[in-house]
Amino acid sequence: MRRRQCAFTLAEVVLSIFLLGVVAVVFGALFPTGQRLSGSAKWRAAALALAERRMEAIKFIGYGNLTYDGLRAYGLIDASPNTPPFSFTNTDDATRESPARMLPNGQGQIVVEDVAWDVRRVIVRVSWRELNGRTNRVELRTLVTNL
User: Looking at the domain assignment, is residue 114 inside a domain?
Assistant: First the structure.
């Protein structure tokens, strides 16, 4: 009686190598996309955190300091421009974080608008350019009243 040997045929081995190659190509194609999305999320989180900190500082200084001189005295904006929208791309105050240091081609703006008697709208914008050349932006808005 002949005993059957347990082994793979050449066709089975070739097919398994082919399928393994297809799986490797698919994962290899998805890896750069995952890296790009991960980087994009990282920059968005950094920009949002930066905008939130700047907005909290603006709320802290109050209605009376929402002028060029007031924002400049607290180190919240750059020296120029001295009319809205104010820039905080490269804030001179080294203790504050600036978009230019935290984000690729990062820029920051603060817009202060009079909405009504003793009410001002404050808009904080942080923008940056992704590696693929696309520009993204985070924008926060609030109203500040004179109490």
Answer: yes
